[in-house]
């Protein structure tokens, strides 16, 4: 079976996913697109044969020729599309964040629980990155003892013009909110956000931020977000256990020595750093559509991360330590992790 995919939002990652669905992965074909920028939608559709351009994302979902939907529009628009997919019974891959608030994400949980089956896979691609998978295996294997601390840095050289201050939490730090829950296999219980001296490149975006997360077991996580750091795209995670530590290794395959300096290339952006992870996550999605059940990061994971984002935003704007209060986990998600 070839899965016929409709794509909503054909900006940077939408186009990148279309490229991999079309030329890299097996078992899928892009048959329809929509974007609030219709000219962009036409341009992207024109690069392949047989791609219908729809006026709206909801038209993509309603198209009988579309078996499954990929949502890659801005975060605040995800709820409408994901809920419409669930109500239409169509599998949906939704880019992170699931929604910009816990309340909106909770409505998506309600819709999926009402449908009685998982239809959503969320784009937390770090769970498919070979480095993070190896890190998790060491933590779960117990050789470093119980995890006590996690040190994280999430550095972007620059961000897009539509990136506003809150997105450091809802769009950037949200990756760590998910990956920490998944690495330690527990929920985050409180967030404190500190604002260091601002980077002169930051403009209206308060940058960098330093977040302190606390988890159910009492582990502490420090997270630096820097989104104007210029030198490259750099993601760091180290788990400190009772008997040892484990951290992501270098991603560069080579070390260069010249003119008195030893160095390794640093990824330019998220496309380059996580290319393999995006390939594996989307192949996983296509295969799950064929198999008939959604797998991987779930609506619940998106909800949990969104509630942590809420706490992070409260701490960013009002200061202080903000507890995270999740609702009870519905039975639909109990066997996930
Ligand atoms: P982008 O601005 O490059 O592209 C978004 C596109 O969506 C634009 O073409 C815009 O016109 C369109 N759009 C906006 N609202 C729409 C709507 N209501 N209906 C249809 N189209 C709409 O942004 P991007 O960087 O591609 O990010 C898109 C999403 O992907 C965001 O949620 C972002 O957080 C996520 N993302 C994830 C990763 C990752 O590492 N997993 C990386 C980048 C972006
Ligand atoms: C972007 O949307 C992503 O998801 C990238 O992975 C992240 O590094 C970046 O900060 C976000 O803006």
Derived structural class: alpha/beta
Number of strands: 15
Bound molecules: nicotinamide-adenine-dinucleotide, (2R,3S,4s,5R,6S)-2,3,4,5,6-pentahydroxycyclohexanone
Domain module count = 2
Radius of gyration: 20 Å
**Largest sheet data:** 7 strands, mixed
**Main sheet strand line-up:** 12-11-7-10-9-8-15
At CATH level 3, the topology of the largest domain is Dihydrodipicolinate Reductase, domain 2
Total DSSP helices? 10
Amino-to-carboxy terminus distance: 28 Å
Mean of pLDDT:
97
- The stretches of 5 or more residues where confidence is low (pLDDT under 50) are none
Under CATH at level 1, the class of the largest domain stands as Alpha Beta
| Name given to the CATH architecture of the largest domain | 2-Layer Sandwich
Principal-axis shape equals globular
Specify the helix fraction band.
25-40%
List the helices and strands in order.
Answer: EHEHEHEHEHEHEHEEEEEEEHHHE
- Give the DSSP E fraction (strand runs of 2 or more residues): 15-25%
CATH superfamily of the largest domain: Dihydrodipicolinate Reductase, domain 2
Catalytic activity: myo-inositol + NAD(+) = scyllo-inosose + NADH + H(+)
EC number: 1.1.1.18
Pfam families: GFO_IDH_MocA (PF01408), GFO_IDH_MocA_C (PF02894)
Protein name: Inositol 2-dehydrogenase
